[in-house]
Amino acid sequence: MLQDHLKDFNLILASGSPRRQQYFKELQLDFTVQLKPVEEIYPPELKGVAITDYLAELKASAFKDLNDKDILVTSDTIVWFEGEALGKPTSPEQAKEMISKMSGKSHEVMTSICFTQKHQSKTVNYTTKVTFNPISQEAISYYVDTFKPMDKAGAYGIQEWIGLIAIKSIEGSYPNVVGMPMHLVYEELMAIAASTR
Question: pTM of the entire structure?
Fold first, then answer.
């Protein structure tokens, strides 16, 4: 199993997201959480996964002192809607506005993951297409006021109430929409472990 292959490594998850941390626990991985502050600003010409690639690598760049057996995992997620990146809302009003825009339409959830070791790094990304049913303003206000999704890209958590009532369809990885495409995490960590044998 993966945890056996990684027993000689020190796995570091640089994310404060409880959803990502829970996924790592569910994979039965031994890991530590380390956070370093980064100003998450990206060049305005970047689009789509180029944004999340850039930010995942930017977060990794804050770690200057990795050891030989360290594997650092950094990531970033955006909601991409009609040519615009929707990050985390800064106010309840903005959260309601984001969800209202996406009501009855499709958007893409894009996540990039950067795997960094002392002498090398690799970034992978994944996109899931999500389609919302039309959502009433009453339902949007109830969701934002009750669940306060201020820490979520695109102002919603698919695993919460709004996911039960508003998701029409999903094309791709569900875990990616919750927090991280864990099938890619598994594949890349297995590859790193195999490459050092």
Answer: 0.93
